[in-house]
Amino acid sequence: MDVIIQIALFLLTAFNLLITFKEGKKIYNFYKEKYKRRxxxxxxxLNQKSLLNKTLGNLNLIKLKRPLRAKFTEEEAIHFNGLMxxxxxxxxxxxxxxxxxxxxxxxxxxxxxxxxIDDLVINYLSLKEIKYQNGGYTAGTYNGQxxxxxxxxxxxxxxxxxxxxxxxxxxxxxxxxxxxxxFEKAGMFGEGLNEGYTELLNQxxxxxxxxxxxxxxxxxxxxxxxxxxxxxxxKDFFHADLLALISELLKSMSLxxxxxxxxxxxxFLYQNEASFMEFVSLRQKIMQIYERRFILDDSKGEKRLVxxxxxxTNNVDKT
Length: 319
Ligand SMILES: [Zn+2]
Hints:
Elements: H1 2-57, H2 74-90, H3 92-101, H4 111-116, E1 121-124, E2 131-133, E3 136-138, E4 140-143, E5 148-151, H5 158-168, E6 176-177, E7 180-183, E8 187-189, H6 191-206, H7 214-224, H8 230-238, H9 242-249, H10 255-264, H11 276-294, H12 302-317
Parallel strand pairs: 1-5
Antiparallel strand pairs: 2-3, 4-5, 6-7, 7-8
Zinc ion binds next to helix 5 and helix 6.
């Protein structure tokens, strides 16, 4: 009998060791993958920086003017009112989204979204289908080409409103959504800034609590301070005009600095890529440019503003 127990115990220990070994291997592979992805991402950002400096440098962005947006024609206004009546009956969440958003921006700023609203598809999927990608769970997605939102998990519509903000800020060309842009050989850039600003508006307009992209939200808010008029940043966002944002930044910094900030923000896109030290260093870089621009030649209380900004962003670190 004793022998049987001993054999059983031996088998159990061997089984446990095997499981521990397998788990250890999994953890090792996870970190190896993460490290590899991080190195690749950094290399990609470095390449992108030099390409963007070359191509954007030739574009005299500082002279860019925001185009005037034509007001809604009477016909458009009638169509819009009819559309809102229909949406009110069919999808209360979508209706509330548009109604609340229009307290902050004009209809003209979301014209493309309104024109495409009839073919906007919102799919609610089961929690089982929740996507694990890039080290985190994706609670929702928006595909601009298909004009389709997928929601895997939501709480108080915070994911839905975030995705609807992506839909509302899609440009007329598929290559643009909010502040992200596919730009010639440099490929997609501005995605980090785009997610941060989208989430900032999600919190500000719809009073949702900060849940996703905490670093990026703080960084996007710091960038907002370079705008002479903060509403212009919202306009640039809803018109999917990253180049207009860069031309605004050029009033305060060099093109190289602007590209450096925007491309570096992509490092914080996914949870597993985030590094607190890198966040602090990028935040510091932005604050130094801010100080150089607004404090050295100004004494009208700007110092106080920088202190407030520091205090605010320090508080967010703890959450
Ligand atoms: Zn998003």
